Amino acid sequence: MLKFDEEKQRNGINGALALRDRINEVADRICEEGYRNICWLGIGGTYASCMQTLVHMNEFTEIDTFVENAAEYCATGNRRIGKGSIVIISSVTGSTEEMVRGVEKAQEAGAKVFGFIDVETAALAQMVDYEIAYPANEQLKFFMAADRFMFNKREFPEYNRFYEEMDAHLASALIEAEKEADEFGREFAKKHKDDAIHYFVGAGNQWGAAYSYAMCYWEEQHWIRTKSIHAAEFFHGMLEIVERDTPVTVFVGEDSQRELAERVAKFLPRICGNYTVIDTKDYALTGFSEEFRGYISHLVMRAVTQRIDVYIEQLNCHPMEIRRYYRRLDY
Amino acid sequence: MLKFDEEKQRNGINGALALRDRINEVADRICEEGYRNICWLGIGGTYASCMQTLVHMNEFTEIDTFVENAAEYCATGNRRIGKGSIVIISSVTGSTEEMVRGVEKAQEAGAKVFGFIDVETAALAQMVDYEIAYPANEQLKFFMAADRFMFNKREFPEYNRFYEEMDAHLASALIEAEKEADEFGREFAKKHKDDAIHYFVGAGNQWGAAYSYAMCYWEEQHWIRTKSIHAAEFFHGMLEIVERDTPVTVFVGEDSQRELAERVAKFLPRICGNYTVIDTKDYALTGFSEEFRGYISHLVMRAVTQRIDVYIEQLNCHPMEIRRYYRRLDY
User: How far does B215 lie from chain A, in Å, by closest CA?
Assistant: First the structure.
């Protein structure tokens, strides 16, 4: 399989899952000391992961928790971030300008910052109050933290059962999903590599997936135009520009908002002949109970879209690591 | 001027401003009785207005206040909406399916609903706990409510001075803005009526403006493709697909997030030869103090974009009231 290193994938995921003890140590300490609210602070791709975590928590929790965009926070502020606030962040480089300023501002306001900064020596890693350094797997880290906070509040009683399945089966389930998706990924890439624009629709944890896949992969890395739209909003405007040949892909997950994406998926065939439905239900996820499949739907979708990416990269002769402007120009 | 009825505009705005006593009566009663949090519940265009109200409040308030999308709320729920919650909504038709179900759900959870339902006899108008019926001017109604809640909490001390200026000058300021924008609107429409896709960028209260203008006007009413992107997010992916001929319009307002939009506006000339900056600062807004201009930036932008709309409608021979699918098909 093109650009697929099973061993590396497995170790990456299992290594992230193994952070759980350290995450719990931090979360348990915070819970013991008490906190007022939890802010998920991000920008770009990490902002999308924040949104995914929030929609997961919204299902279960009464914790006062919200998402902030780092640049917006720097400009407008947010008086709910202050003493007693826990700000949770993630950063690959640890140097994103808006994040550095956002963390400074939050700490000045009295908040404590819990950071997953991949590079232990980076600026952000030095600044945060609690730091756990491990590469990639951002959503997994966020969800592990969120689930622990909810578990400690007795809002997520399935915690132990769920993480038993995660530890035992997640790596294999995602690796198998990639294998199952490979042929689809190749065909999809062939069909859509020249699209003038491609629409991605999602809801629940698939909204962050659609948002970041469209923006951080197709736009940023493949230089293909996209629009992402929440399935809830699709019927309130965007539907009118969908015609026979409009390329639309619906991400259908298995969390609480599955029905919203299904509604779009059921409607599209009536007005469009160029749509695709990617449904996480089609993937085996061996070892996972029915009730837990929704919690990892966004990870399954990423396994699938990864297979699309490698083929678009190859077919379009466009290495995914090049950028036209990002960090190439000052702005 | 094409499709411009000054008298009607003036009466519409002044009539909306005159609702303030009734809005305050409701808000003051709620504040007296006490409340736990305020949820702005919307979908589509009203969701955008909710986001505009929230970003305005975030500047000033410690009130626990948040935005919910009605369809997402119906699917996922939100345990923070319950006894002590005030849910604020607006609806033109009073029959939008997701809103009706959302209001039912919130009330079942123990929340009180404060509705601006244009049609007093509509389903939603009958359901809400507090109802004020008056056509259009949704953002104005939301901001009047928000400002009163903040004033009552001593977080918006400029309330009286601000609304003196609003009552005295808003209608004229917006009418004059439309006149000032007319020639620009015609030229913009001529230049962009055939765009394959048009990008709209905004921040602060201009984010909701860009989001809803792109989706509810260009997509829904002109059937032209768009993507809206928050200025904070522009630099985290989307920038890579902007080239010389990409049509990009930046909405620059005068609220706390002006700097975020300015950053995009300053960057674009380096990489794009087909961009437009619409800056509310270019409009006189006679009678308004400098400090208050930002609070009405989104209304000024709507005055400007209204002039674009009438010319696109005329040039494209596409009446804005027709829909291909919305409320024409069951879905």
Answer: 5
Last residue of a domain, one of B152, B170, B188: B152
**pLDDT the model gives residue B189:** 98
CATH no. for residue B171? 3.40.50.10490
Q: Which chain A residue shows the shortest CA-CA distance from B330?
A: A267
Q: What is the phi-psi region of residue A31: left when phi exceeds 0, alpha when psi lies from -120 to 50, beta otherwise? A: alpha
In chain A, what residues touch B154 (CB-CB under 8 Å)?
A: none
Residue listed under structure tokens 């493709």: B225
A79: Cβ contacts below 8 Å, ≥ 6 apart: B58, B60, B61, B62
State whether B166 and B223 are in the same domain: yes
- Please name the residue of chain A whose CA is at the shortest distance from the CA of residue B224: A241
B40, B98, B241, B242: which to substitute to probe chain A, counting the most A Cβ within 10 Å? B241
pLDDT digits 0-9 by tens, B65-109: 999 999 999 999 999 999 999 999 999 999 999 999 999 999 999
Q: Could you count the other beta carbons within 10 Å of the beta carbon of residue B110? A: 11
**What's the number of domains chain A is made of?**
2
User: How distant is the Cα of B87 from the closest Cα of chain A, in angstroms?
Assistant: 17
Which residues of chain A make contact with B324, given a CB cutoff of 8 A? 239-240, 271
Q: Which residue of A has its CA nearest to B268?
A: A331
* Mean pLDDT for back-to-back runs of 10 residues, chain A (331 residues): 97 98 98 98 97 97 96 96 98 94 98 96 95 96 98 98 98 98 98 98 98 98 98 97 98 98 98 98 98 98 98 98 93 89
Among the partner residues B43, B227, B256, nearest to A227 by beta-carbon distance = B227
Per-residue pLDDT tens for B43-52?
A: 999 999 999 9
**Predicted ipTM?**
0.97
Query: Using the beta-carbon criterion (under 8 Å), do B219 and A197 form an inter-chain contact?
Result: no
Residue that finishes a domain, picked among B152, B181, B196: B152
Residues B231 and B308 in one domain: yes
Residue B185 domain flag: yes
- Percent of chain B at pLDDT > 70 equals 100
The answer to the question of residue A75 being in a domain is yes
Please tell me whether residues B181 and B148 are part of one structural domain: no
Whether residues A113 and A212 fall in one domain: no
Strand partners, A38: A65, A86
pLDDT of residue A211: 98
pLDDT tens by residue, B274-303: 999 999 999 999 999 999 999 999 999 999
The answer to whether residue B331 is domain-embedded is no
A71 contacts B326? CB cut-off 8 A: no
CB pairs under 8 A between A and B: 187
Pair (A254, A171) in one structural domain: yes
Domain assignment of residue B46, given as a range: 6-152
Domain membership flag for residue A298: yes
B76/A257 Cβ within 8 A? yes
B92-95 own/partner pairs: CB under 8 Å, 24+ apart: B92/B118, B92/B119, B92/B135, B92/B136, B92/B138, B93/B118, B93/B119, B93/B122, B94/B118, B94/B119, B94/B121, B94/B122, B94/B123, B94/B124, B94/B125, B95/B122, B95/B123, B95/B124
Q: Could you tell me if B52 and B78 lie in one domain?
A: yes
Give the angle subtended at the CA of A21 by the CAs of A20 and A25, to the nearest 5°: 115
The predicted-structure confidence for B198-224, as pLDDT tens digits, reads as follows 999 999 999 999 999 999 999 999 999
**Radius of gyration of chain A from Cα atoms?**
20
* Distance to chain A for B68, nearest Cα, Å: 11
| The pLDDT of residue B74 | 98
Q: What count of residues does chain B have? A: 331
User: Both B74 and B194 in a single domain?
Assistant: no
For B215, the closest of A226, A237, A323 (CB atoms) is: A237
Asked if residue B205 and residue B87 are part of one domain, the reply reads no
Nearest to A238 among B203, B215, B230 (CB): B215
